[in-house]
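A reminder from the course coordinator: this example appears on the midterm review sheet, so study it carefully.

Given structure:
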């Protein structure tokens, strides 16, 4: 497994500091698109790029998610940050001062960059609007942490050896050889639905467990712009498909774990094209100005839901 790391382990030197993002007085917690996004490859190709990037990250000596023992988990860095060097974003990666949280002024502006591999072109939301993550770049995808059968259960906190565990945990990420259910039928990454979070943020913003109803319109998984209701999915073997919201819940549950010993009945699996049928058009660019007083965001922790 790739374990979480703490500051001080093979950290790149921080690069030049850009001007921080200016917060606005708006207090809305809805995520919208204040900035344009550079066009990326088709949906399937964009999602598929994450699988080899994860493999390269696994192979990097000392690889792991960067956390801070004295801070809440969400103030640590996400697994998506660690993919940047493998997604042609080495320059951006080098600009982070990993000795400090992404929420510190020196790092905030870097998290405001949109990464096409983390965005669904059918979803116009590219940046958070309002408190507490004003103008932070969003992700429309989350790592699958497993299944959650009880209200306060957080699959990402389970050891990856637990039969309910998925690929992603808060402290470790399973390697391909640990996925005994088969990589071609194990979900690695899935569309986050209406709940989106900053791609730079650790915790529930970028890792989420499956909880019924799995495709709920408010809290469930999903992807905008598809031919039918459902979610874009990256499987552990690198294949990209869309899963219908009408899938048998037992079959979907089986695909969320890495060694639950369930059998996936392909006859009950409803797949369709993961490419969007209508590309969303983001709004105009957001202002980027000096803001030395920009404070760290505050929120609560304890759930895999990034927007409790």
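Designed residues:
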């Amino acid at each position: 497994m790739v374990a979480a790391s703490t500051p001080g382990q093979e950290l790149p030197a921080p690069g030049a500091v850009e001007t921080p993002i200016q917060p606005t007085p708006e207090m809305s917690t809805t995520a919208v698109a204040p900035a344009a996004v550079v066009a990326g490859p088709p949906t399937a190709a964009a999602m598929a790029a994450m699988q080899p990037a994860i493999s390269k990250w696994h192979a990097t000596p000392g690889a792991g998610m960067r956390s801070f023992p004295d801070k809440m988990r969400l103030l640590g860095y996400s697994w998506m940050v660690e993919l940047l060097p493998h997604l042609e974003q080495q320059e951006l990666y080098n600009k982070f001062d990993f000795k400090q949280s992404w929420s510190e002024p020196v790092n905030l502006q870097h998290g405001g960059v949109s990464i096409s591999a983390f965005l669904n072109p059918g979803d116009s939301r590219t940046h958070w609007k309002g408190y507490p993550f004003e103008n932070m770049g969003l992700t429309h995808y989350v790592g699958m942490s497993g299944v959650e059968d009880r209200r306060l259960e957080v699959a990402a906190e389970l050891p990856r050896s637990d039969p309910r565990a998925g690929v992603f945990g808060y402290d470790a990420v399973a390697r391909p050889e640990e996925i005994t259910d088969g990589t071609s039928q194990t979900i690695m990454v899935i569309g986050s639905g209406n709940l989106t979070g900053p791609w730079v943020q650790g915790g529930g913003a970028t890792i989420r467990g499956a909880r019924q109803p799995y495709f709920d319109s408010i809290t469930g998984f999903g992807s905008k712009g598809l031919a039918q209701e459902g979610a874009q999915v990256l499987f552990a073997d690198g294949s990209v498909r869309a899963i219908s919201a009408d899938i048998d819940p037992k079959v979907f549950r089986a695909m969320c774990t890495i060694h639950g010993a369930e059998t996936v009945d392909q006859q009950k699996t409803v797949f369709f094209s993961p490419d969007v049928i209508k590309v969303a058009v983001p709004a105009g660019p957001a202002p980027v100005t000096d803001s030395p007083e920009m404070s760290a965001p505050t929120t609560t922790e304890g759930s895999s839901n990034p927007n409790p």
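The two ends are 29 Å apart (CA to CA). Residues 42-280 form one domain.
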